Amino acid sequence: MFCCKELAEVLHPLQPLPRHMFSCGRTFDTSLVSEALEVRQSFTHGVIVLDGDEATWGIVQLSSQGKPSIHSVTQLGHLSANIASRTRRGGQSATRYARNRDGEELAFLRKVAERASEEFGDIRSVLVGGRADMKTKLLPELPQQVPQRVACVIDIGGSAGPEGLQTVATHVPEVARQSRRRALDEVVIRFLDLVAETDAHEAPLVCYGEAQTAAALRIGAVEHLVVASAHSSAAWADLAKDSGATYSEIEPTTELSLRFCQGYGIGACLRYAVDPELLEISGSDLASDEEAKCLPVQTLRVEKPARVSLPMQDPSSDCESVSTATSRSDGLLLKWLESSWTRALQDAVAAESLTMCADVLLFDGNASTDQERLDTTVEMLRGEGVPEDVLVELVCHVADLIDDPH
User: Fold this and answer.
1) Interatomic CA distance for residues 128 and 206, integer angstroms
2) Phi and psi of 8, rounded to 5°?
3) Pairing of strands 44-50, 8-9
4) d(CA 395, CA 97)
């Protein structure tokens, strides 16, 4: 139950809640509901068992820890069939008897399909089992969204009652393992395809190696973090969770997974292209700046800026000027700005003009800037149609150059 002065809402949980909780604060604590939804969508599978006499359906919940194993099997419903047996008798009425039987069978199948649609609309997969061919006749009658989640059809020798439900339930852990293996293979295939498609002259949509991947996580550029089991740790999982990225741990069990584990170890599919040189520079500061994080996308003000080192000219060089402003203008920051905006706007001239405007608004010949200038620059660029993800990354990179008012 959630209630305040403005509203009162009562939710019926999808399954018994694991604990009682009373919370009073400025926001609603929906952690229990989130946990129940996660269990329902990720670890719960539907089972339908039917034959010419009856149908039984239920759910199988797998353990959320370790390898897939059955946590519980719950019967949700049972339906008896009133289908006449087949007969060769009847003379001229035999055809009519056959039509009546087919109609009774179709009505029974549609009742089962209707209940399956009500019970299994939001679960991970469905297993169908039973004797003879009734189980295969059920598949065309299932609503559109359910057949897509039918993982397998299993032939059993027993009845379609509670015993049959338990028999089919024993196949669920293996189905879950195969499904997970296919999903991980798809992740690896996507990663390797992005690596193969990367042009040497363009910023890639993929990165690999501990330094680059950690830097990409810090700036919120990672969509999917992929880690070999030999390199997995809670720290990587936490980094992915904090940055809103999905996390996959790869076991070297197939040719593709072995190629990833031996050749890359740690990698990521990115939400948008990022210059590898910027990731290398940002990654070099990880050891000295573990606590620095980029601000989430909802706001572009910097509270805990990510540190990005920009190359400065050596005072002992033979250049006519040793000012940091010259180094900044020729550095990686403005090169990244121009390349990113060229890709985003598909207009090299406009990107060059915006880069020059941003340079003037941010620095105006100085080596550092302030929050007010950064806000003005961001608003100007947003008005010119620069995407939000590029603006967020800009804030992260410029944050290290903001003067501390204290």
Assistant:
1) 40
2) -145, 125
3) unpaired
4) 77
Q: Record the pTM.
A: 0.59
Q: Give me the sheet containing 44-50, strands edge to edge.
A: 70-80, 54-62, 44-50, 125-130, 150-155
Identify the burial level of 48 via C-beta atoms within 10 angstroms of its C-beta, where 0-12 means exposed, 13-18 middle and 19 or more buried.
Answer: buried
Per-residue H/E/C for 293-335: CCCCCCCCCCCCCCCCCCCCCCCCCCCCCCCHHHHHHCCHHHH
Residue whose tokens read 């992915």: 240
Pairing of strands 70-80, 54-62: antiparallel
Side chain identity at 242, as an amino acid letter? D
Closest to 197 measured CA to CA, from 208, 209, 206, 184 = 206
pLDDT digits (tens, 9 = 90+) for 73-124: 999 999 998 887 766 665 667 788 888 888 899 999 999 999 988 888 778 8
Looking from the CA of 28 toward its CB, the CA atoms found within 13 Å total: 14
Helix (H, G, I), strand (E, B) or coil at 384: coil
Q: Give the phi and the psi of residue 137 in degrees, each rounded to 5.
A: -70, -25
CA distance 372 to 366: 15
Q: Under a CB-based contact definition with an 8 Å cutoff, are residues 46 and 59 in contact?
A: yes
